[in-house]
Amino acid sequence: MKLKMMYSFLNSDLTVIENELEETIKAESPLLHQASLHLLQAGGKRIRPVFVLLAAKFGDYDIDKIKNVAVSLELIHMASLVHDDVIDDAELRRGQPTIKAKWDNKIAMYTGDYIFARALELITNVENPHAHKILSHTLVELCIGEIEQIKDKYNYDQNIRTYFRRIKRKTAMLIAVSCQLGGIAANVEEDIHKKLFKFGYFVGMSYQIIDDVLDFVGTEKELGKPAGGDLHQGNITLPALFAMEDSIICDQISRVHEGSERSDIEKIIALVKESGAIEKSLQISDKYLQKALGVLEEMPPSRSKKALRDIAKFIGKRKF
Amino acid sequence: MKLKMMYSFLNSDLTVIENELEETIKAESPLLHQASLHLLQAGGKRIRPVFVLLAAKFGDYDIDKIKNVAVSLELIHMASLVHDDVIDDAELRRGQPTIKAKWDNKIAMYTGDYIFARALELITNVENPHAHKILSHTLVELCIGEIEQIKDKYNYDQNIRTYFRRIKRKTAMLIAVSCQLGGIAANVEEDIHKKLFKFGYFVGMSYQIIDDVLDFVGTEKELGKPAGGDLHQGNITLPALFAMEDSIICDQISRVHEGSERSDIEKIIALVKESGAIEKSLQISDKYLQKALGVLEEMPPSRSKKALRDIAKFIGKRKF
């Protein structure tokens, strides 16, 4: 089943979200508007808004209220991509030139700032002040995650705990908070929105591990870029960390630096694949997936619960 | 009278603010903590916290509540400086290497993001949700101001209205909001916090115009950098715009570009000084100052009102 089919009952509300996204980034500054619109039109799965809407279905679902949260979360995700692309010197994203490529790093920096600020402005429409606290705290964590990732580039003396902490901050928190804030904006009980947070957190961890695995096993066509990009850029992910338990592979990986040859990266990819590190990583991802499904089991049955289950499973098994 | 003497009765509370600033930027990430601390220790006038505290004196002054606003506003100012230094490729600020110089642009970008996020997290401690709305909206305006400034670099086809709109967004709004939020956090009536906003806005406009004048008339020693820096970097400020009403000077100024010779800049500075543009700019600054003092007159008498008056006058007459 295709991802979109799993939540087709949200289609009209997702159109509302899409329009609202476009409305929100409208800026008096034509340059800012253009840059933001460019980013928006590059598309994306809008998976965070989907989580927000599905989570809100456990409470008093009112799209006029929920949309603020959904749009805000997607904007924060988008802003973090813009700043990420500056860090990674990325020229392309989703087949489109990045803002830093089409304009420059400076425009990208302030476009990111602007979108962040819009997101925070929007969340203030949610009456529960707890929502603002949660969102701003998530932003703090996101920034710490980003800085830690920069610091740990080409640092081969890091352990698996460091990795988990980093992907929690960089990915899982935002998905967790998408689910939680969807619940909060729909006035669910504390018990429920805490469960929604947990579910999102586990799904997010599973999602990021799969993402990191795909960077080793995906084809250039599937990934839209050559495999091994993380390694090449010095981002040491779970498969690399597991493979480094073998001292020979560890020695090879530790030699990777900014100017490493493509052919050396390819050799290492082959070694990592043979080492069993991919399977071990997938097992961890699956553990997180099972935890996510376990939390979901405690929720009352509904169409939304089924959709969340389907999405979580899809994410846990996706091939690209 | 020295600036600090004008509000010496705030001294112990300003120490609280200073400690709180240091406490707030503490991060689990040592790199982030170091970079933020570096910025904090470079000092600064902390004029925004001073405005917050003085404004709060018009209401129920409780330093434990007010400090959240004061620290938040100073953090936003600091974060905007970090991102500004990236844009301007600045190596030094207040005689210290900038974050982008000591580390790099990427660290500077995320340190700025982190400090922004911390500021927003802190403001959620203020119970009145109106405060969150005002602050996030100010951030949006700040970003638009920054982008417009980038867009308008070396653009000689801009008018004085563009200039006023830009300095409103880049400077005056944050000072206005410092005053307003100080009032709101101290539960003043709407009528009072709107006046505080106006006062801050007028002071901020006056302040920025003086700043832009000083860039023409200050000595290298006073400015800590050669005069004419704005012009050289393509920032067309009020004195330049007035001077450009003379077609000969307009022609000269319009030739300034990124690689212009220092000697050409010096010639233009002399022309601008002779043109009467400095005096015209100072008159405008003074008009804003008078408006600020006028708003203040409507406020009930107090020690705090006197301090605000003294500070406004000081800002309007400062030589560096």
UniProtKB/TrEMBL annotation, chains A, B:
Q: GO: which molecular function terms? A: heptaprenyl diphosphate synthase activity; metal ion binding
Reactions catalysed, semicolon-separated, are:
4 isopentenyl diphosphate + (2E,6E)-farnesyl diphosphate = all-trans-heptaprenyl diphosphate + 4 diphosphate
Q: Output the GO biological process annotations, alphabetical, semicolon-separated.
A: isoprenoid biosynthetic process
Enzyme Commission number(s) from the entry: 2.5.1.30
Q: Which PROSITE patterns match?
A: POLYPRENYL_SYNTHASE_1, POLYPRENYL_SYNTHASE_2
Coiled coil stretches, renumbered: none
Query: What are the UniProt keywords, alphabetically?
Result: Magnesium, Metal-binding, Transferase
Cofactor(s) the protein requires to work: Mg(2+)
The record's subunit annotation is:
Heterodimer of component I and II.
Name the family.
Belongs to the FPP/GGPP synthase family.
This molecule's function is given as: Supplies heptaprenyl diphosphate, the precursor for the side chain of the isoprenoid quinone menaquinone-7 (MQ-7).
Entry protein name: Heptaprenyl diphosphate synthase component 2
